[in-house]
Amino acid sequence: MEISRRNFLKISGGAVGVSVLGIGLSPAQAYAEPLAIQYAKETTTICPYCAVGCGMIVHTRAGDVINTEGDPDHPINRGTLCSKGASAFQLRHNEKRITEPMYRAKGSREWKKVSWDWSLDQIAKKVKATRDATFMTKNAKGQLVNRTDALASVGSAAMDNEECYLFQKMLRSWGLVYIEHQARI
């Protein structure tokens, strides 16, 4: 068997590498770490930031959001998200996030925490008082209108079609005519 000097050096170097450096010739074992979203509940939703309506997948475990990502099956964004959508996870996990209603009395400089029941009662009282004070059944021409011009609504891009439909029904039942949505503005 003829071995050239070049091949001799290759074989010698390989033998030294195997014996001295501990390089093994057996196949390496690969160990994959378990996924962070393993055993998590997967829910599809819409990104809450703008009116584009990108699809998102939210992973939750024990009621807590553990991951958000773009939905590859969504026809609008096909799995991609902008920088705001990609950071949607921080909506839930942010120590500066206000989680309780806050109220600042007229003329005051301080905000104070109040209960949800008190907040919703105050909003309901003010909406009803404004509607009752400004509701008109007939316009200047004597036509039946049943509306109020003193209240308006600007919807949120975070609402899906079903929520928008229900919100629209509620507002129309109050007699509102000035109803807008972020997607139209």
Characteristics:
alpha+beta, Phosphorylase Kinase, domain 1, 3 domains, 3-stranded mixed β-sheet, elongated
Explain this structure.
The protein is an alpha+beta fold. It folds into three domains: 41-92, 2-Layer Sandwich (Phosphorylase Kinase, domain 1); 98-130, no CATH class; 135-185, no CATH class. Helix content is 31%, strand content 23%. It has helices at residues 5-20, 83-86, 89-92, 116-134, 161-174; strands at 41-46, 55-61, 64-70, 102-103, 112-113, 136-138, 144-154, 176-180. Strands 1-2-3 form a three-stranded antiparallel β-sheet, with no helix packed on it. The protein has a three-stranded mixed β-sheet with strand order 6-7-8. A two-stranded antiparallel sheet has the order 4-5. β6 (136-138) and β7 form a beta hairpin. The mean pLDDT is 85.
- Separation of the first and last Cα atoms: 84 Å
The structural class is alpha+beta
* Uncertain stretches: none
Give the C-alpha Rg.
Answer: 31 Å
- N-to-C SSE series? HEEEHHEEHEEHE
Rough outline = elongated
How many helices? The count is 5
In the CATH scheme, the class of the largest domain would be Alpha Beta
Q: How is the main sheet built?
A: 3 strands, antiparallel
**What's the multimeric state?**
single chain
Average pLDDT, rounded to a whole number, is: 85
Report strand order across the widest sheet.
1-2-3
How many domains comprise the coordinates? 3
The total strand number stands at 8
Strand content: 15-25%
